[in-house]
What does this fold into?
Amino acid sequence: MFCRVRFDRRGFQWAMREAWRRANATARKAMIPSEEREARAATIRLEIEMLKYKPFAVSIERIERQLRAQLEAIL
It folds into this structure.
């Protein structure tokens, strides 16, 4: 992933920010108890499953992408 960024001042700045962001995300995940994390994941999975029953007039692609991103962030 880092090979796409030129190695200059801006590229190095981006790499440091990205490393910091990932480290913070990992630390935040570690602070959440596993039971609570699994409960939230189950709720999100249920919400994704229930999207199938929305009317055809409702566009569910954006909502599903957001829910899957939340699920990935939790797990």
Observations:
- DSSP finds three helices and no strands in the chain.
